[in-house]
Automatic annotation (TrEMBL):
Species per Swiss-Prot/TrEMBL record: Orbilia blumenaviensis
Entries under SUPFAM superfamilies matching the protein: Ribokinase-like
Region (Disordered): 279-299
Superkingdom of this protein's organism: Eukaryota
Lineage of source species: Eukaryota, Fungi, Dikarya, Ascomycota, Pezizomycotina
Protein name: Carbohydrate kinase PfkB domain-containing protein
Ranges where the Carbohydrate kinase PfkB domain occurs: 175-257
InterPro entries: Ketohexokinase-related, PfkB_dom, Ribokinase-like
Amino acid sequence: MLYEIRDGEGQTTPTAYIFESESTGSRTIISHQLIPQLKTSEVTSLLFTHFFPKATFMSHAYDDMLSRVYNAHSSFYPSWIHFEGRECFMVEGVIDHFTGRREYKQAPCVISVEFEAYGRPGLDRLMGMCDVAFVAEGYMKAYLEDVGKTSWDGNEADKEYMVKLFTSLVKRTVKRRATAFVTIGSKGAYAVRFNNGSVEMRHIPAPNIQPSEIIETTGAGDTFIGAAIYALGYKRLDAVKAARIAVNVASKKCMQIGYNGLGDLADGFGVLESDDPFATPRADMSPEPPVIRPMDGLL
């Protein structure tokens, strides 16, 4: 099965090809990006033009695009910035520049990073620079195999063991009060909180969905991240409840093509915060989410 992703309606050149196996569900994504990657200096210029008071509005090819989203003459400071985990050295430079600014020191925002493909140059360094880490099952597996700790056989008991082993190793690297979400496919996800060397983790099982109900899994990981950021950053919920919402929204994504209704307060997030039949029982965890200011800006 072949999917083509195009950058907007009427575009003739795909930006990515996705090959999906109908028998195993595995996917291979081939990017077709004709636009050169931004440099660290270009990204910081774009960010600070729109986020910080008295920033100079620079003439740049991307300014028109951003000005449609943000009012360039009315600066605001973001509460949360998320990085996909690609072009990692550029991301590291942006984070260094951002956290070194006076505005950040006065009112820190949350920085999150997605850890999906193990082995990307510089990605491991970002683990110690983010407040919230979104760790994919494949990244965790490759990390543990690389350090020679274990091999993966896929059963549920081993997944819990591997999450414990993974978090026990990365706790030496992460920030002292970091939060992590480790996704484990059809088995749900783990909410993890690091606290000065100790680790708390809770398993959030996925809803019981029949194989015949699974229609499209492409984009479920991004849906999980978006829902978790919404729950933690906008609704200011704890990590366990955020993971529950994210697991449920991502599960609903797998039952449909596209994203219609997932972000709607009436049919998507709003339902999941009440007595949704998909909802899983809440597990207790020390209620100390990342310190987040009211979300007036989200990137």
